[in-house]
């Protein structure tokens, strides 16, 4: 596996899967609501299984756009290492999102259980 492929895999696992799963778990708590307006709209009011599926599809579309953009930039500007930079940035965002979701879930569970 190339370094770029490995970074994209980590990005998918953190921002794609990790954020989606922790968001879905968090929304099972009545006291938690999604903080991001776009995600909140996709998830629905109240959040539903279809909303989580829409949120997952939205993430898949984002990944496709980011990946194709990174490939295009790398092809037209060789040596820029955008093939490494883009998944690293997505991973950082994913780790932050998962960390925030876990923090909020833990706070609510401590408070109400």
Automatic annotation (TrEMBL):
InterPro entries: DUF5658 (IPR043717). Keywords: Membrane, Transmembrane, Transmembrane helix. Pfam families: DUF5658. The chain crosses the membrane at residues 6-30, 51-72, 84-102. The keyword Transmembrane applies. Residues 10-106 form the DUF5658 domain. It comes from the Archaea. This is DUF5658 domain-containing protein. It comes from Natrialba chahannaoensis JCM 10990.
